[in-house]
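R.M. (postdoc): so does anyone remember the format we settled on? I'll just put the structure tokens first.
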């Protein structure tokens, strides 16, 4: 599935809810271009493309890894999920957990588990969402593994007020029992339509974001704590939609001192999004904008969450901006005050053979390497897996794999996670049935 079609489906799904979604479809149609000539044809022959920041015609090198392995092919329909937007999480004994935005008997999405089965994996559906006022619908975010094996997540719609909910899947013998932990009420006193998954701090407090709702209708950051009479939700911050940011697609990153970091996809001085910090001050939080994205040679419109290095530096991606207007990988330097943002890599223009539109967060790896995915671009226009490595002057990119599309994987919307020398992820499209896949790539 191409980028334009994927975004049309996202808009269609969101607009089926009771809340009007002013979702801004970026100019991504060119990202799904036909297979490229020259450099792309060499990459299609199995040679990963290496590019430096100052080397637009960098050489090809011998591949260091094999291609991705298809672990599971979603079938959609009433018996299986389809279209996974979210990254996977790891459980015990090699288990993988995730969500799909589609499929199940009510076609409202699913939560699933993948277990090792011989040389491959077997899928076990954990829950199929029903929608309506008593259940959630359309999960876009990842799951969070909590104490006792409980899985927490969010749904974009459904719940008592139709504005989405937080749910819990509690293991009970050989199956899971789902419960709605909290239903969002929407503006002006509550958030609406959570897109990202949840995060947890050391004290067990859960944090999340909503795309809309809040005092100004431009989204919120919220927390969930256990009170004497059940779960208590608190709106920690309401985005105004102006200089402070708007529509946070990414999750919250809890850090030391109770500070919460994140990105807002729009808003800011140029309406190209921001990196923000929420600092506790008594019983409230104070927001500060660490960086205003400006487009052009800078990034624009971050959809990803942030990841934090041991030294406190923050890393993320933008789907637009950069010298090729195809997105960037960036770093916010924590050692400098005010904070300084640096574009580590700008993806090449459509048709260059490089990846385009990185929606997911990068993975930090030993030796200062970063791994990630792009939704479009590559040799077949179906996305890539990339590696960024430190060089004498900045970072250089290696395309580890170009997704080929049907019947294999296509268009990864989420980021990756690494375990035991392998990367794991999902693709929104591709596979034998066109409903997306789960894959791995050995490093």
């Amino acid at each position: 599935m191409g980028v334009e079609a994927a975004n049309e489906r996202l808009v269609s799904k969101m607009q089926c809810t009771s809340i009007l979604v002013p979702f801004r479809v970026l100019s991504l149609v060119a990202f799904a271009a036909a297979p490229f000539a020259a450099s792309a044809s060499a990459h299609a022959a199995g040679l990963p493309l290496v590019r430096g920041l100052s080397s637009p015609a960098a050489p090809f090198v011998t591949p260091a890894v094999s291609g991705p392995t298809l672990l599971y092919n979603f079938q959609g329909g009433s018996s299986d999920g389809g279209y996974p937007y979210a990254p996977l999480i790891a459980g015990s004994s090699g288990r993988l957990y995730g969500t799909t935005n589609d499929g199940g008997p009510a076609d409202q999405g699913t939560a699933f588990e993948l277990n090792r089965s011989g040389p491959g994996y077997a899928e076990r559906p954990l829950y199929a969402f029903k929608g309506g006022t008593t259940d959630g619908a359309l999960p876009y975010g990842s799951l969070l593994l909590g104490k006792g094996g409980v899985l927490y997540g969010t749904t974009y719609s459904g719940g008592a007020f139709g504005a989405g909910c937080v749910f819990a899947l509690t293991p009970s013998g050989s199956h899971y029992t789902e419960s709605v932990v909290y239903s969002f009420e929407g503006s002006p006193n509550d958030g609406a339509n959570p897109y990202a998954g949840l995060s947890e701090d050391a004290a067990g407090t859960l944090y999340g974001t909503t795309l809309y709702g809040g005092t100004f209708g431009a989204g919120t950051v919220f927390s969930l704590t256990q009170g004497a009479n059940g779960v208590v939700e608190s709106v920690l911050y309401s985005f105004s939609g102006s200089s402070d940011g708007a529509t946070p697609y990414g999750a919250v990153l809890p850090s030391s001192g109770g500070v919460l970091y994140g990105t807002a996809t729009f808003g800011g001085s140029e309406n190209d999004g921001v990196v923000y910090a929420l600092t506790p001050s008594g019983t409230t939080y104070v927001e500060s904008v660490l960086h205003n994205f400006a487009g052009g040679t800078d990034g624009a419109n971050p959809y990803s969450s942030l990841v934090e290095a041991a030294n406190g530096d923050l890393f993320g991606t933008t789907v637009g901006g950069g010298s090729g207007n195809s997105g960037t990988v960036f770093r916010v330097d924590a050692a400098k005050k005010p904070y300084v943002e640096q574009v580590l890599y700008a993806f090449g223009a459509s048709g260059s053979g490089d990846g385009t539109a990185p929606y997911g967060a990068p993975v930090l790896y030993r030796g200062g390497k970063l791994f990630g995915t792009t939704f479009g671009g590559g040799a077949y226009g179906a996305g890539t897996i990339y590696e960024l490595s430190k060089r004498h002057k900045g970072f250089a990119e290696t395309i580890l794999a170009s997704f080929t599309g049907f019947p294999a994987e296509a268009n990864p919307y989420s980021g990756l996670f690494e375990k035991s020398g392998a990367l794991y992820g999902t693709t929104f499209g591709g596979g034998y049935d066109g409903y997306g896949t789960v894959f791995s790539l050995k490093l």
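R.M.: ...and that's the designed sequence above, right after the tokens. Also worth knowing: DSSP finds two helices and 41 strands in the chain. The radius of gyration is 20 Å.
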